[in-house]
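Lecture notes, unit on protein representations.

Consider one protein chain, 55 amino acids long.
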Amino acid sequence: MPVFVKKLLTWGSVAFLIYFVAFRPDGAAQMFKAIGAALIAMFQGFGDFLTTLMT
């Protein structure tokens, strides 16, 4: 992928994130809460897997 396209996608993503947080703060907060909960669940499952391996 050309460097220009990567930069364009990166800056576009940053601009969308800023727009989303500025104009839809409640929706952005709910989205980040959901992402955080999903990450916590994934790490909890990974920890449970490792614990099961050790016992």
